[in-house]
C-alpha cells in the first residue's frame, strides 16, 4: 500500500537504486497514469496506464475502432530541478515553462519544432477513443479538435453519462476519455488538435502558449501510413479565452456518474466527519538578512491549507506511525476548520502570513467524510487542482463566493455526482466532496 509521495508513504528511491512496485488492480478499469512524486521530476517522468475491462464486459457505449493515448505535458528549456530550487531559494514564483507537449512533442506552433508534431491518422466514418491525460505540472488545459466533436465517456477511470462538446477542460492529474467520430467521407483537409492553458490568477505570469497536433485522414486507396499532405487546408479550432471561468464551470457541471445498477454511484448519504479547508497562497517572512522575490522583497510565497504550509518530514510518515515514533516527525493536529475566519473571497486580510508544520488529520476507519475546499483571495483567486491519494471521491457540490454551510448543502447532488480522484477548486469559489475512508494509510 505504498503509493509514492516522497516522505509520506515512503522514502524516495535513492539515486542509483531501484524499486519494484508489485500491485494488483481490483475493481478498476479505464485511463490512469503513473509519475514521479518528488520535487519536479514529474515534468518528464510519467506515462499513461490503461486498464481494459474484464473479458466479456463491454464498454457502456459503442466500442471504438481504435484507442489512442493522448498525454499532455509541459516542457522547460532549463533543468526543472534548477527551476524549482531557484523558486524555493528566492521565495518567488517558479519560472514558467517554454512549451506544452502532446505525447512528448511540441508541434508546429513553436519555433523550429514542426518536425516534432503528434499526428493522428483516422479513417472516414470510424470512431476513436482518445485517452487524455494532463501530465502538465502547473496548468489546467483546454483541448479541442478543429471541426470535430468530442463525446466525454469517462473521467479518472470512472464512466460518466456521455455528453458532447467541442472543447473540454482537464486539470493536472486528471484523465478524460472521449469518443471522436471521423467524418463519413474524406474531407480533403487536415485539422489541428490544440491544447492551451486556463489561468485566473492575477497578478501572475503563466505559459500562455498553445501546443498543436494534427488530425489527418487516410486518403481513399492509399496506404494507412502515407506521408502527411501539407498542401491540404489546415483548420484550427477556436479555444476559450485563457481566463474563461464560465466555460470551465459549464463543462464541469455536465459531469455525472452513470448511476446504473451495473455502475452505481455509491455516494455516502450520511456523514460521520465534516471538514472545511481553505486553499490558497499566503506568505512567509524571508530568512534574516536576505531579500526575497515574493509579493514583497521581505516575503516569500507559500501554499497553505487552513493556513498551514507543509514541511516535509525527514522520516516517512507511515514508518513513524508504524514504529510509534511520531514525536518530532509530525503532529496529528491539523485544523479541521480555519483557525482565523475571514471573508475568504473578499478583500485580502492585512496579515497574509501562514504557519509551517507537518500536521496530519486522523480519520477513523470506514468513516464517511465530507470535505469542503474553499479558494481564498489572499494573493489572488486561482483554480487549485486537488488530488486525494488512495481514494476516489464524489463531487457533490460546488459554487462561487464563500461556502454557506447552512444553505449550500441543500443543493448537493447525492443522486449521480461525478466520481473521480482529482478536482479543481473553482477560482473564487468552493467544492464539496464525499468519500469513504476505507483504505488505511497516509
- End-to-end separation in angstroms reads 9 Å
The largest beta-sheet arranges its strands as: 4-3-6-11-8-9
- The low-confidence runs, each spanning 5 or more residues with pLDDT under 50, are none
Q: Give the class from helix and strand content and strand pairing.
A: mainly beta
The proportion of residues in beta strands is 25-35%
Task: Tell me the CATH architecture of the largest domain.
Answer: Sandwich
- Specify the CATH class of the largest domain: Mainly Beta
List SSEs in N-to-C order. EEEHEEEEEEEEEEEHEEEHEEEEEEE
| CA-based gyration radius | 23 Å
Per DSSP, the total helix count is 3
Based on Cα principal axes, name the global outline: globular
Query: Mind describing the biggest β-sheet?
Result: 6 strands, mixed
Q: What's the rounded overall pLDDT mean?
A: 93
CATH-assigned fold name of the largest domain: Immunoglobulin-like
Share of residues in helices: under 10%
The number of distinct structural domains comes to 2
Task: Say how many strands there are.
Answer: 24
Q: Let me know the CATH homologous superfamily of the largest domain.
A: Cupredoxins -  blue copper proteins
Enzyme class: oxidoreductase
Function: Lignin degradation and detoxification of lignin-derived products.
InterPro entries: Cu-oxidase-like_N, Cu-oxidase_2nd, Cu-oxidase_C, Cu-oxidase_fam, Cupredoxin, CuRO_2_LCC, Laccase
Subcellular location: Secreted, Extracellular space, Apoplast
Amino acid at each position: 500500500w505504498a503509493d509514492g509521495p516522497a516522505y509520506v508513504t515512503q522514502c524516495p528511491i535513492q539515486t542509483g537504486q531501484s524499486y519494484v512496485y508489485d500491485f494488483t488492480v481490483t475493481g478498476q478499469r479505464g485511463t490512469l497514469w503513473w509519475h514521479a512524486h518528488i520535487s519536479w521530476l514529474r515534468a518528464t517522468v510519467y506515462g499513461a496506464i490503461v486498464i481494459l475491462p474484464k473479458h466479456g464486459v463491454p464498454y457502456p457505449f459503442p466500442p471504438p475502432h481504435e484507442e489512442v493515448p493522448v498525454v499532455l505535458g509541459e516542457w522547460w528549456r532549463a533543468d526543472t530541478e534548477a527551476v524549482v530550487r531557484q523558486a524555493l531559494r528566492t521565495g518567488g514564483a517558479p519560472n514558467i515553462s517554454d512549451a506544452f507537449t502532446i505525447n512528448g512533442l511540441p508541434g508546429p506552433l513553436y519555433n523550429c519544432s514542426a518536425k516534432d508534431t503528434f499526428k493522428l491518422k483516422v479513417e472516414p466514418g470510424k470512431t476513436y477513443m482518445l485517452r487524455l491525460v494532463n501530465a502538465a505540472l502547473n496548468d489546467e488545459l483546454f483541448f479541442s479538435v478543429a471541426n470535430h466533436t468530442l463525446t466525454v465517456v469517462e473521467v479518472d477511470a470512472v464512466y460518466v453519462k456521455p455528453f458532447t462538446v467541442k472543447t473540454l477542460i482537464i486539470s493536472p492529474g486528471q484523465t478524460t476519455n472521449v469518443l471522436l467520430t471521423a467524418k463519413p467521407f474524406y474531407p480533403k483537409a487536415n485539422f489541428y488538435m490544440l491544447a492551451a492553458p486556463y489561468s485566473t490568477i492575477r497578478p501572475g505570469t503563466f505559459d500562455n502558449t498553445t501546443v498543436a497536433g494534427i488530425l489527418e485522414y487516410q486518403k481513399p486507396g492509399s496506404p494507412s501510413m502515407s506521408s502527411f499532405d501539407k498542401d491540404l487546408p489546415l483548420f484550427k479550432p477556436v479555444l476559450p479565452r485563457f481566463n474563461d471561468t464560465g466555460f470551465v464551470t459549464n463543462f464541469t457541471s455536465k459531469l455525472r456518474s452513470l448511476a446504473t445498477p451495473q455502475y452505481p454511484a455509491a455516494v455516502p448519504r450520511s456523514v460521520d466527519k465534516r471538514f472545511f479547508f481553505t486553499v490558497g497562497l499566503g506568505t512567509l517572512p524571508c530568512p534574516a538578512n536576505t531579500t526575497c522575490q515574493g509579493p514583497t522583497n521581505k516575503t516569500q510565497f507559500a501554499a497553505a491549507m487552513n493556513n498551514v504550509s507543509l514541511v516535509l518530514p525527514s522520516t516517512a510518515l507511515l514508518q513513524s506511525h508504524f514504529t510509534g515514533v511520531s514525536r518530532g516527525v509530525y503532529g496529528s493536529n491539523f485544523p479541521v476548520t480555519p483557525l482565523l475566519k475571514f471573508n475568504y473571497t473578499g478583500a485580502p486580510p492585512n496579515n497574509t502570513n501562514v504557519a509551517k508544520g507537518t500536521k496530519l488529520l486522523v480519520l477513523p476507519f470506514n468513516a464517511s467524510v465530507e470535505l469542503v475546499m474553499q479558494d481564498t483571495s489572499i494573493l489572488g483567486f486561482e483554480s487549485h487542482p486537488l488530488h486525494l491519494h488512495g481514494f476516489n471521491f464524489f463531487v457533490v457540490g460546488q459554487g462561487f463566493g464563500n461556502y454557506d454551510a447552512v444553505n449550500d448543502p441543500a443543493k448537493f447532488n447525492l443522486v449521480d455526482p461525478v466520481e473521480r480522484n482529482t478536482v479543481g477548486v473553482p477560482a473564487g469559489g468552493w467544492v464539496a466532496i464525499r468519500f469513504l475512508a476505507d483504505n488505511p494509510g497516509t
